[in-house]
Amino acid sequence: MTDFRDKHAKGEISLTVNGEPKKVRAYPMERLLDVLRLELGLTGAKEGCGEGECGSCSVLMDGALVNSCLVPVLQAAGTSIVTIEGLAVGGALHVLQETFLECGGAQCGICTPGMILAAVHLLNGTPQPTMDEIREGLSGNLCRCTGYTQILEAVAEAARRRSTVRTTA
Amino acid sequence: MNIERIVGKSVPRKEGREKVTGESQYVDDMVLPNMLFGATVRSQIPRGRIRNITFGPGIAWDKFVVVSAKDIPGKNCIALIGEDQPCLASDSVNHPEEPILLLAHPDRSLLPQAVAAIAIDYEPLPAIFTIEESERRSEIIWGEDNLFKTYLIDKGDVDAVWEKAAYIVEGEYSTGAQEQLYIETNGMIAAFDAVQGITVWGSLQCPYYIHKALMALCNLPAEKVRVVQMETGGAFGGKEEYPSMIAGHAALLAIKAGRPVKIIYDRMEDMAATTKRHPSRTRHRTAVSRDGKILGGEIDFTIDGGAYATLSSVVLSRGVIHAGGPYYWPSVRIRAKAIATNAPPHGAFRGFGAPQSLFAMERHMDRIAQTVGLSPVEIRRRNFLQPGQATTTEQVLREPIDLGALLDRALEVSDYHARKRNFAKQNQVGISRKGMGIAAFLHGAGFTGSGERYLSSVVGVEGCADGSVRVLVSSTEFGQGTKTVLSQIAAEALGLPYENVSTAQPDTLEVPNSGPTVASRTVMVVGKLVQSAALGIAQTLITSGLLREGYSAEEFHAACKQQVAEHGQFRSWSRYEAPSGILWDDQAYRGEAYAAFAWAVYVAEVTVDLTTYSASVDDFVALQEVGKVLHPLLARGQIIGGVAQGIGFSLYEKVVWQNGRMQNGQMTNYIMPTSSDLPPIRVFFEELGNIHGAYGAKGIGELPMDGPAPAIVNAVEDALGVRFDSIPLLPEDIMDALGAMPPIGATGRDR
Questions:
Q1: In Å, how far are B124, B351, B636 from B12, measured between CA atoms?
Q2: B667:A144 CB<8 A
Q3: I need a labelling partner for B201 at 20 to 30 A (CA). Which of A15, A56, B35, B188 fits?
Q4: Across the interface, do A3 and B110 touch by the CB < 8 Å criterion?
Q5: What is the CATH number of the domain that holds A124?
Q6: Average pLDDT over residues B358-376
Q7: Where are the beta strands (DSSP E) in B245-316?
Q8: What is the band of A9 on the pLDDT scale with cuts at 50, 70, 90?
Q9: Which ipTM did the prediction report?
Q10: Domain for residue A2, yes or no?
């Protein structure tokens, strides 16, 4: 964590998170990851490396996949953010959450929220990806448990079940 | 035999849903009221005496809680096997990153500056960093001889075999340190009050290791130390022993502050300060007959333990017992030692010494094959252990394992022979070379030797007030599916639906000590105890007349409810008893080393790009006999994940050291495989069964770490015709070895 407070004053920042309008008081250079986790209590996004390598903090920002540890919250002002908490609607799991469960795509679970959001992003752009496209599409998200195979299978199965994947973005 | 209803099926995971919704609570997701954040001030030098500590200007030190070794209420050590590792260095340091002081503050973001503002003045002492320097003993940095532990296995008359040998084959092999690289870094929260004592919540594998360490450190009785496992984001051995250190630090700060304290390592601190796989060096000298049979040999196996003893003696033990591979040695002498260097202590990592010694054995088998003029397949076939033969520790194989048949099936599913022929032709031209490599190996399940006897694990099963059943174990879930499989076993034993059984979150206030979650022991050893404790629940209900034999699930629930209503808490316990005939001699290092071995043959297909010199794996077959597979989906996931770590160990993951400190402690420069680096990993199981495991299960978790490295390096040698005996094998190593070859571009244009 870096302290940016001596440089800028805290301000009010508006953004939409999982479909709900939110106002937070934050330093402009605070990481979006910290605002989500500490201010909004959305702890599904995880910090694995703090430098944009592992993808555990991935969220969607206006539909784009971003590492929330690299996004100053000011940059997220006015955008629409989707976190893992925004995928299941009314207790019904998102199709990728279902297939990750069924195919063994989550082991320890720490990379899973980011991995699922990366998969949502992939299927939004490429509804019927080849295995190589899935490998490529998820290659910014590290998983140490699974060796990825069952994750790739979960994404392929989700694509098979739905030609386009609903998102709340 | 009954037809099993639940084990053997891929039932939905107990620990699944919260992980895909983001609801699972990992330690950094937990916030306690009034909580402070902690940080660690660490040694900047590898070895020396601490002369003076200065708290620099510009920091409001009165707002910080500061803990030094003087604040420790009990013994200044991390109690594990020994007590040589201090919790906080007081007058001297023995490795870079050794903890010296602890700080806590309500604002997490102020800690890095405060840590940086503390200046420590040292009197440096000479330090040693390699196995060879430690062996020379120019500096004695631990004990009297820099040796944490030695073992000798001596079978038959090795000295008599050399004159009978048609060939004597020698080789030296080495493996590097490897970072576990769980994606969740280490972390702990501690809270203290005078009545309840100390409680810690954290990311961990072994609640009772921490329990023991905190009792000694905080000078508290057992009932005043409570350890709770949070959801744990990967471990792989990396959260076996070091969490006791972090828990100790959080506890010391919490005691001094009178407030809860959270410590979360960032990635660089985690990589630099916590344990890694032991670097190793193995020397083989083998006497071989004209027809390629091993007559005997000498093996010298050495691991670098870093600055303190920690778990090195048991890592060494597993490594030495696996050093002879799945082969019959009429005679063998294996000398093993764990040595000290001024690096942070190396520790547990999936495989625990076996990946190191098996890399050497399986590379050496290919060298023997070349020397004798046999194929890698044939040399293995002629030397495989057969039922009735004895291992290097004289453990007689009683199970009907047919390694030749395993090998045949692996060759068939990998299309080994046809591909090898094709590659031999293709490799004449073009800018890449392809090769096939195999590795045959074994992995012992459970603690080594008398380990399970000493552990004497206890498991509980509880009949609950609502009629459901709960498994009580200290075995932790960190991705493997512990709660799922143990629930399956209890449900199977009781004849109940899987949905009616749950497994408690490990909390030392609630669960007995079923031993650490390590050594591929959870399903086989703990699972067997769960099975018997579950049967105890049914037995009690039947004996007391509340339940009839051949009961239905509804009848069980009614009887269980009635039992709890009338008599209160209803629990059944089961304690480990060593099976008869499993005898181990700690002194002679001889006997039944493990109650069961899993067996495997892995086949790797690789391409080496002659422009970039990078080797990549194109196809990987993992065939293993692991007893009964209790949950096929989870078992396959364990194998694929282990193979992926093995591929990283072989071709990607290099710890760069300078004066005992890791120089590349970031995910940017310590490279683990991504989804685009890995081949299809094809998993096949054979199921022989195992009388000592729950429903015939053997251990599975560590096995897949053992085979990839030798299979891959054997394949690289097959592709290039150049020998490589060290891993990790990076493009620069291949470039150096091929340096004498003609420029590649010319060959490329020939196509």
A1: 57, 28, 15
A2: no
A3: A56
A4: yes
A5: 1.10.150.120
A6: 98
A7: 261-264, 280-288, 294-304
A8: confident
A9: 0.96
A10: no
How many angstroms separate the CA atoms of B199 and B181, rounded? 27
Domain containing residue A41: 11-86
Q: What is the pLDDT of residues B143-170, one digit of tens each?
A: 999 999 999 999 999 999 999 999 999 9
Closest-approach residue (CA) in chain B for A49? B267
Facing A142 at nearest CB: one of B12, B15, B674: B674
- In a domain, residue A106? The reply is yes
Considering only alpha carbons, which residue of chain B is nearest residue A146?
A: B641
Please list every residue in chain A whose beta carbon sits closer than 8 Å to the beta carbon of residue B26. Answer: 43, 46, 110
Which residue in the set A54, A85, A146 is minimally distant from B640, CB to CB? Answer: A146
Size of chain A in residues: 169
Q: What residue ranges define each of the domains in chain B, with the CATH number in brackets?
A: 17-24+457-575 (3.30.365.10), 31-125+189-261 (3.90.1170.50), 280-448+589-738 (3.30.365.10)
Contacts of B261 by beta carbon, 8 Å cutoff, 6+ apart? B35, B36, B37, B38, B65, B104, B189, B190, B191, B250, B253, B254
Q: Of B136, B514, B147, B98, whose CA–CA distance to B316 is shortest?
A: B147
Rounded to whole angstroms, how far apart are CA atoms B380 and B714?
Answer: 13
Residue B35 and residue B259 in contact, taking contact as beta carbons nearer than 8 Å: yes
Number of helices and strands in chain B (H, E): 20, 28
Please say which residue of A55, A86, A117 terminates a domain: A86
- Assessment of whether the complete model's pTM goes beyond 0.90: yes
Contacts of B116 (CB under 8 A, 6+ apart): none
**Residue in A42, A113, A152 nearest the CB of B675:** A152
Query: How far apart, in whole angstroms, are the C-alpha atoms of residue B737 and residue B173?
Result: 16
B646-657 pLDDT, tens digit per residue, is 999 999 999 999
Alpha carbons B541 and B548: distance in angstroms, whole number? 8
List, as ranges, residues 91-120 from A with C-beta within 8 Å of B.
Answer: 93, 97, 100-113, 116
